[in-house]
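Sanity check. The docking grid for zinc ion depends on where the pocket ends up, so I'm generating a full predicted complex first rather than guessing from homology. Inputs follow.
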Amino acid sequence: MPELPAAPRINPSILAADFVNMQRDLERIASADFAHVDVMDNHFVPNLTFGPQMVERIQATSPVPLDVHLMITDPDRWAPGYAELGAASVTFHLEAASDPIALARRLRDIGARAGVAIKPGTPAESLYDMLDEFDQILVMTVEPGFGGQGFMPETMPKLRSLSDEAKRRGSSVWLQVDGGISDRTIEIASAAGADTFVAGSAVYGADDVEAAVTRLRELARAASLES
Ligand code: DX5
Ligand code: ZN
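Predicted complex below; grid placement will be based on this.
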């Protein structure tokens, strides 16, 4: 197992990349921690991106490991395939999974980090007793489906409670946020306990992509030290 990157981790979302210049846009994020890959099925969310064949090519091309975010129905059936193609981390939605613990164990058995995501309206308490089953919890800070939406600050108390609970239980689970993360909002999420940050438009919309990754990391680090 390669050494895991230290917090704060910055995972640019390639949903905001140029899909016909994917190789170029993957190379631009070589200084990031993971490439965040949003798989959408036009069913769990009202948008469609790519499936395993594309993700396999992205995996072969990316200079950094993949952090796959599955916004799909029936992850119990489809998520293991993403671990099998070599994604370092596979996150499925709690709302869509019929047996989240069995699925997380299967992902780990294949060799991936197992992640679970919750939408803004989904409470986190049901996860407290399963923290050990996961390597990452993704607290969505927008409704999943599209890039470029506004950050929802009302999700922060949930993140804070999860972070407190993880500390109380001595858990090393990573807490990820995704949606509307920018220079303006990353400090709020970091102060509330996030250690892993997805950013699409804030990275790929910047004039200098590499500088945007560095700046986001510095802002997150400073805010975590202050809190
Ligand atoms: C939204 C996706 C996000 C999206 C974030 O459903 O899960 O990963 O790419 O994009 P920004 O950072 O632009 O909000
Ligand atoms: Zn995502």
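Relevant for the grid: The chain has one domain: 9-226.
Also worth noting: The chain is about 35% helix and 20% strand.
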